[in-house]
Amino acid sequence: MSSSKITIKEVAKQAGVSIATVSRFLNNFSLKKINKQNVENAIAKLNYHPFIYARRLAGGQMGVFGLIIPGYEGVFYSFYAIEIIREVALALNEQDTDLHLSVFWNRDTFKTSIVDGIIMADILGNQQQFKRFLKEKIPLVVINRNIGEENVNSVAIDNFKGAYDATEFLINHGHKQIMHFAGDLRVQCASERLMGFQSALEKNNIKASKQQVKYTNFSRRQTRLILEELFSSGDIPTAIFCCSDEVASEVLNFAEEKRINIPKKLSVIGFDDNPHCLNDHLMLTTVRQPLKKMVQQAVKILSDNVNGKKIQQKIVLEPEFIIRDTVSFC
């Protein structure tokens, strides 16, 4: 007989226990040692696989959390995306929970019936999906974004402070001709980093102009185009604060090709602390995001809510400024 046609009744008969005892086993309730062993042996012998939807209808948990990553150019090469996936997987493994990963590409196909709760790694183009989750009242935590709705849990990073500190560090090192290579402003972190940059200039009485901000959309290719145009025009800054380490790394590559001395001729600061953007002879000054801590807190909040604690939290974590080799006194 096919394992998909084996019923809980047959498992109970094989184990010599009641159907209720098998149901308690499948939903992780405690059993007498002898009953637990008998049910385990019966399941193994019959090759029984419980129908997961029936478990949910019976009030049980699936043992699965969803993680939704917004789809964008370079997502599968993104340090942020890869780190989030890795840290969520590790955190869930610690509590014996499986991960269901979904990348949102303009179509909402996510089935909430197969998960106990959801972590959304930011919201970019999937606002309607987010509203659907709220309507369905599935336990939900949004990371990397401050959420205004009172009933939504979120764990974010203080991008404004990270950008402000980085820009002020450049100013304190004598730089006034500072540019910001901004990210995709549809993403909250990018807009907050731009605001932090502008606020630091304003506080230090440095007039900010539109020419001081270039939009890379977190893309190396776009960064390269901007650099080619910028350095051919002769309007060259003494320092660039970049929206990400990937963008900063492209600036360093360009400088090496054009034999522009870093940091004597050009100072550079990134954002992320991406280990792939470090090298032996030139270590990037950057802003470190506490991605692991952000994920761990999100998983804990989601687990608490899935288990009925109904916790409401909005957490903002502070980044850390990391001083290395790429900034000099002007």
Tell me what the structure shows.
The protein has 330 residues and is α/β, with parallel strands linked by helices. The chain has three domains: 3-57, 434 Repressor (Amino-terminal Domain), CATH 1.10.260.40; 64-158 and 291-318, Rossmann fold (3-Layer(aba) Sandwich); 159-289, 3-Layer(aba) Sandwich (Rossmann fold), CATH 3.40.50.2300. It has eleven helices and twelve strands. It has helices at residues 8-15, 19-26, 33-46, 52-57, 79-94, 127-136, 159-172, 188-203, 220-233, 245-257, 291-306, and strands spanning 64-70, 98-104, 117-121, 140-143, 153-157, 178-182, 213-215, 239-242, 267-269, 286-288, 314-317, 320-322. The strands form three sheets. It has a six-stranded parallel β-sheet, sandwiched between helices. The longest helix is centred in the first third of the chain and has 16 residues, at 79-94. The mean pLDDT is 91.
The gist of it:
By secondary structure, this protein is an alpha/beta fold.
CATH topology of the largest domain: Rossmann fold
Mean pLDDT: 91
Proportion in β-strands: 15-25%
Strand order of the largest sheet: 2-1-3-4-5-11
Q: What is the CATH C-level name of the largest domain? A: Alpha Beta
Largest sheet, in brief, is: 6 strands, parallel
Q: Which oligomeric form is depicted?
A: single chain
Instruction: Tell me roughly what share of residues is in helical segments.
Output: 40-55%
List low-confidence stretches. none
* Structure summary, number of beta strands: 12
Assigned CATH architecture of the largest domain: 3-Layer(aba) Sandwich
